[in-house]
Amino acid sequence: MSSDLEQRLWKIKLLISDVDGVLTDGSIYKGNDGAEYKQFSVLDGAAVAFARAAGLKLAVISGRYSPATTSRMEELGIDDCYQGGLDKMKSYGEILEKHGLQDEEVSFIGDDLIDTSVMEKVGMAIAVQNAHPFIKEIAHFTTEKAGGEGALREAVELILKGQGVYDETLRRIRERIKAGDE
Asked: Where does residue 181 rank: exposed (0-12), middle (13-18), buried (19+ CB within 10 A)?
C-alpha cells in the first residue's frame, strides 16, 4: 500500500456509496406489475455490520429513486439514504454538514460518470472493478470486486486495515458471534 493511500485512509470517518453499479450489478428487474427489483450482495450487507462495529459511518447517494433501495437501506440501518438527485454534490454537502465532516474525512465508492463530482471532492475516491474508465482514472483505489459482488465490503476492509482497526474489529465480532450476540 502506498504512503499516499495510507495517509488518505487514516483520515476517513465516513464512506458514501453509490447504489446502482456499486451495491448492485447495475441491473434493474421490472415485474409485469411494474414493480422494480434489484439484487444486493449479502457480502456488502455484512460489510455494513463490520463498518458499524468499527465506528465507520456509512451513507448512500443514488441518482435514481427506487423503493428497493429504500427497503434495503432500512434493513441495513443506513439512515443517510439520498435518492433521486442527479446532482450528487447537493446530497454530499448535506451529509457533510449533518456529520460535521471535511472532504478529506470522506470516502466515496462509485462506478459511473454521475459520480465524478463527488469523487473529485472526497479525500478517498474508490472505483469498482467494472467502473467506467474515467472513474477508474480519477479514483485513488480500484476494487478487485465488481459492483454487486462485494465491492463495498472490499472498500470497508481496505479502510479498516488502513486505519489499523481491522484485526481488533474482527476479533470483537468473532467474540460476539461466539457468545451468541449476533
From this structure: exposed
Taking the whole predicted model, whether its pTM rises above 0.90 is answered as: yes
Residue 169 is given by DSSP the state: H
Tell me the C-alpha distance between 113 and 52, whole Å.
Answer: 29
Mean pLDDT of the chain: 95
Q: What CATH number does residue 9 fall under? A: 3.40.50.1000
Q: Report d(CA 124, CA 8) in Å as an integer.
A: 6
Instruction: Please return the burial class of 21, using the count of CB atoms within 10 Å of its CB with bins 0-12, 13-18 and 19+.
Output: buried
Q: What is the dihedral of CA 149, 55, 18, 10, to 10 degrees?
A: -90
CA 140, distance to chain mean position in Å, is 15
Give the residue numbers spanning the domain of 41.
3-179
If one counts the domains in the chain, the total is 1
Of 162, 163, 153, nearest in space to 48 by CA:
153
Q: What is the distance between the alpha carbons of residues 158 and 106, in angstroms, rounded to a whole number?
A: 14
pLDDT digits (tens, 9 = 90+) for 68-100: 999 999 999 999 999 999 999 999 999 999 999
